[in-house]
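User: Phage portal protein, Sutcliffiella rhizosphaerae:
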Amino acid sequence: MLIEDLYRAPWHERMVKVIEDMVNSVITDEEIMVKEIQEWEGSETRNNMIIGELYYRNKTDILKKKQEITWKSNQKLAHGFAKKLVDQKIGYLLSKEPTFGTENEEYSKIIQETFDRGLLKKIKNIGKEAINKGIAYLYPYINADGDLSFMKFPSEQIIPFWGDNEHMEVLSFLRIYEVSIYMNMQKVIQKKVEYYHPGGIKFYILEEGKLIPDVPAGLEQNHHFTIDEKPYTWEKIPLIHFKYNEEEQPLIDSIKSLIDNYNLQASTNADLLADIPKFIYKLINYGGTNLAEFLSDLNKYMAVKLDENGDVDKLQAEIQTEAVEKEIERNRNAIYEFGRGVDTRDVNLRDASGIALKFRYGDLDIDCNTLESEFQSSLEHMLWFIDRYLMMTGKGDYTQENVQIIFNRDIIIAESEAIENCEKSTGILDDKTIRENHPWYTKEVEDRLEEQEKKHLKEMEGYLDKFPVTDDE
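Assistant: Predicted structure for Phage portal protein:
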């Protein structure tokens, strides 16, 4: 036996220590979640989402502009380009109700009832969220009445765990949000964490870098929803994502620096105009005591006192802002070009022909093509949850039904030119096709034409009754 063996711990004690070290080195699910939350909250992606929302609300960086010299102006001119471009895209693509084409009339009626004005408005808001933040989320759930509903989760609250590189399948996700509660008679902010996984939902509170089970929320539930108090879990994770583009890149990424420069140039130019005096007075042998007295006499009496050989002269202050105005105009054009929008201030839009309008709306059309493609995929995902809900509640199995989703764009056209083309198409196309391409056409037109035809036939019958029919000999 060696001397060191006398001081060495027994074999079983050493093995226990090894096992304890192995157990302690294994990271728990909750610790992984905390690390993911910390990484997400400090990420550039989340920061850009917040910036996108701020710029949409016209809370731009120019509001942080400072002026150390107290007597100088400090104009902070914020221009709402982000809001205008986002609203323009939403108005162009999502202002009209989409068409859900299916051969099953009963299913078509259910879809129309499901996508009512409230849900369509929510989808419109989801579109705004997606453009501002790159990606937006809807959460399907069963409300208190037992009906399927959809809730918009703010994008910056969601950490999705994707199952593929294309970010199409969500394996699970975290939702992190803050609530105000009262503790010991004081109002405090509490950070809630919800973990949605295939087997249900876990509820936590994040305190001092640790996840603590949220007792009031119920700790954990082994289901996603209940119908008539019967628990169910979705076959897919209940999270529907709507992307602005494949890269999930928000609009603000492309135009923030341009908007900041535009605001800075405009604000600096405004400072210059405010600080440079319109006139500079040149005084020779002034008879007063100080400049304040001079300005007072000038404003009050329209005259000033002068000593012998005295004189007053006025120098015009020249303001050179032409170069700044040109820079501002170049910046404005760049914002609409890279923001893929239409500058409605363009006077050439007023009398533009149909071809010219299509050319000017080209960038907007291309951007909305991408958005439409992403939203068609997302709405199909929504229909999956709708179909499963209908089957669960015994309202029919429509899972095999094909649905074609068409977005009806609010396209700007030259009306007089379109009407003229419709007139020229008479005899070449059928009447209904011509009507459908008329700028004033709506679905109600067909009903009114039918009523008009019935009224016309009734009048004709009354007219014929006045002439008795005689048998020909």
